[in-house]
Amino acid sequence: MKMTYGKLNTLSDQLALKLQSLGAKPNMFIGLLMDDKSFDLCVGVLGILKSGAAYVPMDVARYSSERIKFMIEDAEMRMLVSVTAHTKMVAGLGRNLENIV
């Protein structure tokens, strides 16, 4: 996929609308479970911010599953934006999270 500002804007708008339809709003934290320095990371950050919510970055390379669970519980997250590669890990977090891939 060719990365352009137009594509970034379109995809982040789509993500923002999806998040808003699921209840994203100001003063809400949404987890962002992505690989470093990816186009998907940029889409995730902008999409969450455009939805009105705040993002909480989570790096699977740096944080253990227990640390990520703590972050989710501490911030009272109900939603998590991730990539397909992390779907299995998200399912193993044992919490009712809406996972947007």
TrEMBL record:
SUPFAM superfamilies: Acetyl-CoA synthetase-like
InterPro entries per record: AMP-dep_synth/lig_dom
Keywords of this entry: Phosphopantetheine, Phosphoprotein
Coiled coil residues, start to end: none
Pfam families: AMP-binding (PF00501)
Domain AMP-dependent synthetase/ligase: 2-84
Protein name stated in the entry: AMP-dependent synthetase/ligase domain-containing protein
Species name: Eucampia antarctica
